[in-house]
Amino acid sequence: MTWFLGNLDVVLRLLREHLVFSLVPVALGLLLAIPLGWVANRTATLRTVMTNAAGLLYTIPSLAVFVFMPAILGTQILDPVNVVVALTIYTVALLVRTVSDALTAVSGNVVDAANAMGYTPLRRFVGVELPLAVPVIVAGLRVAAVSTISLVTVGAVIGFGGLGLMFTEGFNRSNDAQIVTGIVLVLLLALVVDSALLLAGKLLTPWERARRAVGRTT
Amino acid sequence: MIEFRGVTKRFPDGTVAVDGLDLVAEQGRITVFVGPSGCGKTTSLRMINRMIEPTEGELRVEGQDVLAADPAQLRRGIGYVIQHAGLFPHRTIVDNIATVPMLIGRGKKAARDRAMELMETVGLDTAMAKRYPAQLSGGQQQRVGVARALAADPPVLLMDEPFSAVDPIVRESLQSELLRLQSELGKTIVFVTHDIDEAIKLGDKVAVFRVGGKLAQYDEPGVLLSRPVDDFVDNFVGRDRGYRGLGFLSSDTIALGSLPMVSVGDPRPGDGWAVVLDTGGRPLGWVEAGDGQVTEDGIVPGGSLYDVGSGSLRGALDAALSSPSGLGVAVDAEGRVAGSVTADAVLAALPAARDDAAA
């Protein structure tokens, strides 16, 4: 605790860095995953190819991605863009399947009704399918956000900022207080972001509350 | 008016869903497509708003060639009601109903005002406007579905088995409600069902389809019951078609007989039965011969009542058959007893009514 209070300015800076390194990729990843998920849902073949490719992407070790990013992007080895791009890729890999599943789960009867009312495909996607997919997408987004917050710490091993630096520095200086503070802050950050997403999901879907209160599934 | 001219739908696997359909759904009338599953009735319906594209033939809605129209534009001008209502679960009732007005760019306020109006039209409490579909019963959801289809005031309404998922009592009330609405709105309605009774109740004209997408018979319901073209239609129309056909014959020529009438407190009749009236002259039930006075407890429930004004031979015959005395009670528009009708009188009126219908 004394270490924490004595180094408050450093800790807050790292926390802020960590937040940016994790939330920016999650947001970008979501923005990319929505159209990709829609594309994946066009045909059965596309869906298989894209969700498997996304799954494969996710299995590449994060450290390797961080190291190879400069070679692929032509950036400096310690450019934060490397982290943001790498983590965006992971988020997309996680969310493409989620978005595609969420869209598949929208009732065919409802989509049919939307077509019959005279929705154009784009308007139907934005006005009907996407809102109805929100609960499933938010569930996937929470997993992506928490795992990204955790992955950012790996970046510290090769010198990126964020709360991971407290592990590497604490380890080098045998400073247990610094390591523990780092762990607690990462956990707290994950918890806060997760709760915020949960709340946002609820606020976005008032009809879900009505449905649960009635206890029906349609 | 909706015109099918030689319309065929062949699916890529070679199945012919609709085979050379020629049919005109008349302006302002209810046309019912009925038949067993696989007869192409729903496919035919869905070709009208291009949810399914015809392979051959010509299809016109209000004179417009369907295949030349932009699908989204076309559909906004055609109301559509589906099974299970197909409401948008994430939108409130009022916003569900306002869907098409919003799509065609009317303001939010105007669209919602119209939606509130329509809630009343279809018999929904406007207090439900802010609820979500999941909070409504199946019958209420289906009413919302009808209101949503009517929101942009389209001249044509397509209804795809809209009442098949609700229980029989609710279904009956939705059917009556549709007939009431139609008498006010006069839309050109195409209604698909597999239920021949529903078809006969609702249709101004009924198209019976057979498996393979062939139109077997297209006629008014009374004609369908009295003169089915072949065994298939005969079988499909079902048992009791002779009796049900009486529902389409006018009872104008029936001569009403007299009826012994008493009130509560009067002495009971000396022999036979007498109908018990309330103070307004409306029938309460029957009382059998006996000693003492007519008491409320002693009233035997009567049969169905035969409404002289809107009566059919079926109503008259049923009143006679269901009455404990064998005398059917005929009532006027206010529900007051107008006289009696017997099964013999109904049968005597039958030849004239048949000639009348054939003319």
TrEMBL record, chain A:
Membrane-crossing segments per the record: 20-41, 53-74, 80-99, 143-167, 179-201
Domain of life: Bacteria
Coiled coil: none
Main location: membrane
Keyword Lipid biosynthesis tagged: no
Keyword terms of this UniProt record: Membrane, Transmembrane, Transmembrane helix, Transport
InterPro entries found in the cross-reference section: ABC_transp_perm/SBD, MetI-like, MetI-like_sf
SUPFAM superfamilies, alphabetized: MetI-like
Name of a matching Pfam family: BPD_transp_1
Membrane topology: Multi-pass membrane protein
Domain ABC transmembrane type-1 per the UniProt entry, residue ranges: 15-198
Gene3D superfamilies, per database record: MetI-like
Compartments where found: Cell membrane; Membrane
Similarity-based family: Belongs to the binding-protein-dependent transport system permease family.
Protein name: ABC transporter permease
From TrEMBL, chain B:
GO terms, molecular function: ATP binding
PROSITE patterns: ABC_TRANSPORTER_1, ABC_TRANSPORTER_2
Family: Belongs to the ABC transporter superfamily.
Residues of the ABC transporter domain: 2-237
Any one Pfam family match given in the protein's UniProt record, by short name: ABC_tran
Family matches, as SMART domains: AAA
Keywords: ATP-binding, Nucleotide-binding, Transport
Keyword Nucleotide-binding among record annotations: yes
Protein name stated in the entry: ATP-binding cassette domain-containing protein
Superkingdom of origin: Bacteria
